[in-house]
Specification:
heterodimer, A: alpha/beta, seven-stranded mixed beta sheet, six-stranded mixed beta sheet, 17 helices, 20 strands, about 30% helix, B: alpha+beta, 2 helices, 7 strands
Chain lengths: ~575, ~150
């Protein structure tokens, strides 16, 4: 993006310069060019010591890499620029008149510009100059000159020399030479890898994107019916759109390679799908798309686009597994699925889990006692979604609690198979260890639901859902257990434990607290005390401490506490209240 | 049992990565995302097409009520009192059940019905592979709605 591979001999680096007032405020359309503007050379003959405060920190070179995104890429900035030529590129050539432009340049820069090989290519005005001072002047004027309300943006890059303006036929001839040696007849394969480096194409712009039309013409003329395989690797392709004509010309193509490009998503290869959907071999190695998608999803989507594919990224694809919802013939009666649980076992399971939750809430250390409830070969994983929000109240933090971040196995965020594997805890010891590593929890019992569903083999699925009050956050959770029931002695063993956590929203918690506000608490156990404090807080909006004091004074009687508050309201200091 | 034909036949195909995933661990990983996507897409478009995923003994626990068997479940889903619905999934997690060769799939997310505000929901599926074939069916399904909006 920053460096055209041919132009990496720039000899200077961008340094903070007070004259570059235009840099951050460029014509919005050209903002994407800020990177290449880093090419602009600040070579020796520029006066660096003068000028006012540098707009980008430090003086000469001191903070040169601070705002320069291209800094790290141009390590060969000291390579000498032998030819002395500069290629000047002016954008939006259709917006201004060339003659006016050159006249204006001459006037404002007081240098003789002497442009060579001027041409317009792809809406850019390109010309070459040898006068370095002229180049500096042009560089300074970029973003300042306006012609007919259009601000001119110009860039200078070091260059070998003016590229001859080749006629189409000349270009075609060169490309043809290049293609001849790249076509392998025995394999019916055309190798277009690294086209821009081809020695036959020196002297013309030879990026694949730019010469695609010429390529497609040549291919159509010569070998459209023959080519079965094309290698498009190493061409910095972001999008397969430029390959449209080439692909539609090749009638019998079966293998396509797009390794080492810049494909970011599968929509970028839509063109390939449209024009070459019958391919059997495809390779997208070393493209960003593979890191941005879940592996299984990637393979699944690719096979939907290319149904005849038998090899992807060098690996053979096996036969499909279908998840079919088509009617099968009559099912074998012997296969049992779910069984309806009767009341007694259901109650037993609910009690089992209520006890479980109690142990869980007692404390992290106490959870080792949950060990025997788990089977030897049990499984446990956590899946979290934490929607950040603008509110900054203490119990609704925008950031996932740290104890959960490293264990999050949410398939929507955890793409790699190895990661998913490492976050699935197997075996009683591991699982109990993980449970103890979870922070303190307090299941808000009045929010909880337990759903139980009978399965085959005397298994039961139980889903606990509700809200957990954890230090620093309220969490809405849903915990799925698969339990094996031992009908003989009525004991249960947990086989699977899956916990899904979502950040509770303030609305939810408000409602929940309000519900507990309505129901009068039965005893004054520690849990209830905390709940009472919250209730009083809800009603009076005082701080925790004051609410607790109020309740203590009222002997933990909610109504009395409210009365006390109302009586004393006038004399309560303002900092007793929540902000 | 008569063979029912629906106007739109659902065929959810998904594919495995390197090697054939005979291992239930791998299968769980592979089918999770695809199933979730396909299920909720179908649900949102036309939930009566989900019928084929259920069998005779499949069970649906919906907010406390139990429904067994394809007809009952389809009936329940069809009778849900909204015209249009949209699911957005926030978490997906799948675990294999090694001894039974089944997959436990836990999903949470938000759903928006008609003009209501979105509500959180959580849904758990137990998926089984049918004897002798490659297709997966739902054995148990538990759905809970958190009637609190966000």
């Amino acid at each position: 993006m920053y460096a055209d591979k041919k132009q990496n001999q720039q000899s200077g680096s961008y340094r903070g310069n007070s004259n570059r007032k235009s840099w951050p405020r460029m014509n919005p359309k050209n903002q994407r060019r800020t990177g290449s503007s880093a090419f602009l050379d600040r070579d020796g003959d520029t006066d660096m010591s003068g000028g006012g405060p540098s707009s980008f920190g430090g003086g000469r070179g001191r903070h040169k890499n601070r705002y320069n995104p291209g800094y790290g890429r141009r390590m060969n900035r000291n390579k000498p620029h032998l030819s002395g030529w500069w290629k000047i590129v002016v954008h939006d050539a259709d917006k201004f008149d060339k003659d006016h432009f050159f006249k204006m340049l001459d006037n404002t820069t007081n240098e003789s510009i002497d442009p060579q090989s001027t041409r317009v290519e792809r809406n850019k005005l390109i010309f070459w100059i040898k006068n370095t001072r002229a180049k500096e002047a042009i560089y300074n004027q970029s973003g300042k000159l306006t012609l007919k309300d259009h601000t001119i943006t110009m860039f200078a890059v070091p260059s070998e020399g003016p590229e001859a303006q080749l006629t189409k036929d000349e270009k075609k001839g060169k490309v043809c030479n290049a293609l001849i040696k790249r076509y392998i007849d025995e394999e019916k394969k055309l190798n277009l890898s690294e086209l821009h480096k081809d020695p036959d194409l020196v002297g013309m712009s030879s990026k694949l994107i730019e010469i695609a039309p010429i390529l497609s013409e040549l291919i159509t003329e010569k070998c459209a019916d023959l080519i079965q395989e094309i290698d498009f690797s190493n061409n910095s392709l972001r999008h397969a759109g430029c390959l449209r004509e080439i692909l539609s010309a090749c009638k019998v193509i079966t293998k396509i390679k797009l390794d080492n490009n810049r494909i970011n998503s599968l929509t970028d290869i839509k063109t390939v799908e449209k024009n070459a959907s019958g391919i059997t071999h495809l390779s997208l190695l070393n493209n960003p798309v593979k890191n941005l998608m879940d592996d299984a999803q990637y393979i699944s989507d690719i096979r939907k686009l290319f149904p005849k594919l038998i090899e992807l990224d060098g690996v053979a694809l096996p036969e499909k597994i279908k998840f079919e919802t088509e009617e099968q013939s009559v099912l074998p009666q012997t296969q049992k699925f779910a069984i309806l649980l009767e009341a007694a076992p259901k109650k037993a399971i609910e009690n089992f889990f209520l006890q479980y939750v109690n142990f869980h809430d007692t404390g992290s250390a106490a959870r080792t006692q949950l060990g025997p409830a788990y089977d030897e070969t049990c499984l446990f994983s956590i899946s979290v979604a934490w929607r950040a929000n603008k509110d900054v109240k203490d119990k609704f933090p925008a950031v996932m609690p740290s104890e959960l971040t490293k264990k999050n196995r949410n398939f929507k965020h955890c793409y790699k198979a190895e990661q998913k594997e490492s976050r699935l805890f197997i075996g009683r010891e591991n699982v109990v260890k993980e449970l103890c590593a979870l922070g303190e929890t307090k299941h808000m019992m009045h929010t909880m639901n337990i759903d139980t569903s009978g399965m085959f083999n005397n298994h039961v699925t139980a889903v606990l859902s509700g809200i957990i009050d954890a230090p620093g956050s309220y969490r809405t959770f849903s915990r799925t257990f698969v339990v094996a029931a031992n009908p003989a002695n009525g004991s249960f063993l947990i086989l699977n434990d899956q916990m899904s956590i979502v950040r509770s929203s303030p609305d939810t918690v408000e409602k929940v607290l309000k519900q507990s506000f309505d129901s009068t608490p039965s005893s004054s156990g520690v849990n209830n005390q905390a709940a009472l404090v919250k209730q009083v807080q809800q009603a009076t909006k005082m701080t925790d401490k004051f609410c607790t004091d109020c309740l203590v004074a009222a002997n933990w009687d909610f109504q009395k506490a409210l009365e006390l508050f109302n009586d004393k309201k006038a004399s309560i200091p303002p900092d007793a209240f929540l902000k | 049992m008569c063979i029912l034909k629906f106007s739109a036949m659902l065929c959810i195909a998904f594919f495995i990565g390197s090697g054939i995933a005979t291992d239930i661990h791998d299968k769980a990983l592979v089918i999770a995302s695809s199933f979730v996507k396909q299920y909720y897409q179908t649900f949102d478009e036309n939930r009566s097409h989900l019928a084929m995923l259920y069998r005779e003994n499949s069970q649906l626990h919906f907010e406390g009520t139990v429904h067994t068997g394809r007809e009952e479940i389809t009936q329940k889903l069809k009778s849900l009192p909204f015209n249009k619905v949209q699911h957005t999934v926030s978490t997906v997690d799948a675990q294999p059940m090694i001894t039974s060769q089944a997959v436990v799939l836990a999903v949470t997310g938000q759903l928006k019905a008609d003009d209501d505000l979105p509500h959180y929901f959580s849904e758990t599926f137990i998926l089984l592979q049918e004897n002798g074939s490659n297709s997966w069916v739902i054995s148990n399904q538990i759905f809970r709605l958190y009637l609190h909006n966000h």
